[in-house]
Amino acid sequence: MGETVFSNFRENNLAHKGSICLLAWSPCGSRLLSTDKNGLLAVWKPEERGIFVQQSIIQKGQSAVTHITFRSKKSMKSDDGDAPTYYFAGEDGIVYYGSDDKTKVQELFRLESPDGGTSGIAALVYYEEADELIAINEHMMMKRISGPDDSGQIKEISSGKIAAKSLHETNVMMRAIWISSGLLMTSSGENLLRFWKLSEDENYVLRVSDPKVPPDDKIHSVAYSEKRRILCAGTSKGYVLFWSHNISSSQSSSADDWYPMLRATVKLGMTVIDLQWAKHHGFLSASTDKSVHILVENELQRKVRDQVAMVQISNKHLGFLPNFWAGNSPLKLTEVECGVPIKGCDITKSNILVWSGRKAEVYEINSLTNHHTFTSSFNTNATTMVIGSYFPNEPLYIYMANDSEIEVANLEGTITKRLPVEEVEGEPVYLDCHGTWLVASTSKNYIHIWDVSTTKRKSVLSRKFEEGDVPIADIVSVKINSMGSKVSILARGSSDASKAEIVDTKIWVFDVVSDSFYSYEFGPDYYPVNHFWDTADITEGKKENEIEKEGFKAREKAGNLLGCEIKYRGEMKDFGAEIFKINRAEVVTFFATTEKGLLLQDRFPITSEGSVLLGLQIPHLFLSAPKSDEATGNSTIQIQSKVLRDFVGMELVNFQTRWALLEFSYNLTLGNMDEAYKAVKLIKGPNVWKNMAHMCVKTSRLDVAEVCLSNMGDAKGARAVRLARQEKEREAQIAMVAIQLGLIEDAERLYVSCGRYDLLNKMYQACGLWEKAVETAQKKDRINLKGTYYAWGRYLENVGDHKAAIACYEKADAHRTEVPRMFYEMKDISSCEEYVRKANDKVLFGWMAKYFESKQKLDVALNYYKQAEDFMSIVRIRCFQRNFEAAEEVVNESGSGPAAYYLASQYEAMEKPKDAIRLFSKSGRYNHAVRLARENGLDKELLPLAIRCNKRVMLECAKYLEERQMYEQAVVLYKNGGNSSRALQICFDAKLFDSLRAISDDLGSDTDPDLLQKVGDFFMSHSQYDKAVQLFVTCKQPKHALELCEKYKVEMTETMAEKITELLPEKEADAELRNSMLKRIADICVQQQNYHLATKKYTQAGMKDKAMDALLKSGDTEKIIFFAGVLRSKEIYIRAANYLQTQNWHTEPEIMKKIIEFYNKAKAYKQLGMFYDSCSQVEIDEYRDYEKALDALKESKKYLVKADEDCTMLDRRIQLIEVFVRAKSLVKDDPNEFVQTCYQLLETPKLDVAVQVGDVFALLIEFFFSEQDFQQCYQLIEKMRQRRILLGPYLDQSMVDTIYRKMNIHVPADNDEVDEEIDSDM
């Protein structure tokens, strides 16, 4: 369990000095803002354990800050974590925008009085959906702005003065609250409320219409419950008024959407200064100057029983209507004023029972005159009571739940009997009596049923409301059916965390026969509020044998029809336009069956605001609806009826037909179409068949649907259904039935389920739902999107909305033809010209040009053709005018092929072949140019024309030129025409050697071998060996080609190598020949230093060693590593590692890793050991890192041991380095041991095989230098000189200079060192 801690918060002494005016939490709770009368605003951030940290202090002016509203973070691009931004304003009329950073606080605007004076802000509200701010001052000046944006700029949406009294006149604080998205309500001390529809820039007022409220009364406070959609207002004279918000389907808000709840008006006697709705419960708090009142929302009692309707009207009033009939007109109730507050009431055919929890009253009613008479009253503490059912000549009894028993009393209140309830069951809480059956639910959720048909009143059963051993929920209402076989239950649960009441979204039924509970789930957004069993006795006046004779099982069906009223409890504000599809209240009817539980029979909305379900009596449902009298302002309640779906048009039928309809409805609900058909096959009423057809849509019975449509006389619908059988999806076939029946929503659901969005689109079009059709096409049926817009355009054109039709034609991309056609049919050419000019479309310009050309207005047509860039039509008109110069000018300027072709045709007709050939060429119609050149003997112009034609024309022209001995031109055309063999033959015959070289590259394997040999000999004779090699490869003579490469050193390219490889036999056929040829290719590549290609061919030949040799010669380290990894050969690994050791491996860790990896894979432990030895020496020589060198030597020894090598010398080196490393570690801990060890090392023979002597000297000198023992330093340096050890690599020169200076000795020139360096360099 969590712990709630309350702590006192004292703000910083440096913050507020004046009285606190306002505290405001940010929406996410991350900041608390406080303001005072001196104009100071402080921002606080809550931390753990109730500590508040001051974020900033903002001082803007000296007037009190009275209003703060926060801006939504999703409206801003920047993200400042949990720091909110906000607007604030006060008595100086200036509106500011601020955040945690006080340097970014900016003044947005100032609202002044009409005369330019100061006027304080009265209301400051933020419109989140549009990211806008609305500010109103005390003089009713209003300004609406958006922003600020990232640059700090705001945009003014509107400003002006509200037509209302200023707050200085009314002396009442202004209130402004949001009703829904974009709908703002304000109150400023008048007797009306003002509403602002910001999204549509509209407004309206809602006036107080309750006659009980004095005309001079003023509204002081307001509150709106979005969950209940109830608006309440408190007045200066102590009245609390209520309005119910009925959202209209037109999606436009007006005063007609508000229904005054006149009977709910409450008078408190003092000015109501504040109203607040409880979030989850039906409580309203009303604050006055001296008290707080809690107003509780109570559900009014209502009931239909024994053909009498009863409705509670107010706290002490109820109305009844006996012997009412179910007509189309609503019926008015007879009112009864009771002497006690009504906590509960019940009714029979002859009496009314009312109780308050302390007293009960009984009234007698006259069914003929509608009069009522007070009969008796008696005191009782019973909280739940029912009156027994009326039976002629039988006394009536009252059943009262009192403590742990049910008291049975007569109408005078005299107790005649007590029905005990066992202690384990708890106390009786809820009662219901129907016919001869009484049911009670107890405090421990038991259901107890009694048979009260006799004076003995026998207990039938007691059952706990649980599944298995698990309780279901707490019972809040029980009703029993007329046969005593089923009990309906409403329940509620509770949250384990908050213990708050949770309404159960199910209706439960206890079946006496099967001794089990079953339920129906209404979904998360709806919950049941009332339930009634059918009270009609359709067997009235019939004997049992007559009922059985009719062939109906009357007692099986009687009383099993259950009606339930459900309400919507979801949030309304997030649905947008979808809110108008939500039914606030609905009625659901079920058949309760032992075998299949609750079966949904029908579901429909309660459309009238304030209407509630009264009861169920076959064939009607009854509802009570309030009605206001506009003249008097009073409200009355009337009874309305609705015929059950399967009885529409058959309300007044005989017993047999009514039973047939009930049997039909029952089987229809079960989905048993065959039995339903049998029940009504003799009934002629079309409504029965229509209902059955409706059910066919739900059960997908297409065969029965056709019969139903036929019996309905709907021949057109039956034909449409037969045609729908051609669709392969069964859902699509059933959807056509739904369309014929007007079930558009069902058809929509079916088409969506089978994915036939094309048919759904067509249905929307047929229904005139064009917006939905377009939306479907855009999202799911893109292929028909343009067609949909086109159809919509045709529809709009037919209804005369030409502007909208044009828009649709444009979206359908059909405006270039349809819009001109539409204007032409309207004979409105001027509008068409205007549209064409605005559209600036070439196709439309062309249409206008053709129109004016048809009217012989050639100049106008030429202008439009020019704008359409239709140069061919311009040339056509110019030729018609015989103005060929202008026509040729158009062709030259435009470069239009069609225009040039048309003019060329004209020149051909005029026998001007050269001009025609020129223009045919310009238009790209070279075949026509060739034809004219041959016809007119223009052979010299034939080649450039024919070369641009297709191959057929080129070969024809080649043959033509060959016949005329124009061999060079013929060879060119034969070659380009694809007949290279003929071109070669002509070259040899005519000795055209230049042409032969040009066409040799295009020779293929399909060329005559003798001809190819002849060409090859030609190239050999002219020393063009590369051409000859290519030709022999083409001739599939790889040996000859390789011989030429070897002999004449022709470059072996990768393309040539691959072509030769393709000519070699497969490995399975002749592996030896293939490998030898591949080796020859590789050898040639090595000679030409093309090592990569050589590697590839050696590998293909299976010669891995040679491949590696070639790759090593290339020096491509990356490929060598890759190649070694691919071949996975021991020798290759060793060779690759040996090669890598020649690289700069000590500065490239990846190469070092590969060396170690390859030696390991090859198990070449000796080489790997030697490599580690080299690594050790590098660490000593280059970095003087003996620790790493020691590690490397140990690794070297590990692998040399594996290789069975002698490690004696290696052990000696390891030992010496370990001594040196140990000595280095003793410098700080044991200096004496350190010095002794170093001197011992210097005396060690052959120390330099492992440790550089200079490093030992350097270590000692550095130590003595740090100890300021310059004498020792000097002696050691001199010993280094005696041993001819260079000082530079080991000692810092400045340190050497310091030592000599301290010893007062001149630093000698190191000639020996120079000599040694020279020798070393040489």
TrEMBL record:
GO biological process terms, semicolon-separated: intraciliary retrograde transport
Gene3D superfamilies: 1.25.40.470, YVTN repeat-like/Quinoprotein amine dehydrogenase
Domain called IFT140 first beta-propeller: residue spans: 73-297
Residue span(s) of domain IF140/IFT172/WDR19 TPR: 671-1158
Domain of life: Eukaryota
Methyltransferase recorded as keyword: no
Intervals holding WD repeats: 13-45
Residues of the IFT140 second beta-propeller domain: 306-623
UniProt keyword terms in alphabetical order: Cell projection, Cilium, Repeat, TPR repeat, WD repeat
InterPro entries: ARM-type_fold, Beta-prop_IFT140_1st, Beta-prop_IFT140_2nd, TPR-like_helical_dom_sf, TPR_IF140/IFT172/WDR19, TPR_IF140_C, WD40/YVTN_repeat-like_dom_sf, WD40_repeat_dom_sf
One Pfam family matching this protein: Beta-prop_IFT140_1st
Domain IF140 C-terminal TPR, chain residue ranges per copy: 1167-1281
Location in the cell: Cell projection, Cilium
Gene Ontology CC terms, in alphabetical order: axoneme; ciliary basal body; intraciliary transport particle A
Presence of the UniProt keyword Lipid biosynthesis in the record: no
Name by which UniProt lists this protein: Anaphase-promoting complex subunit 4 WD40 domain-containing protein
Origin species: Guillardia theta (strain CCMP2712)
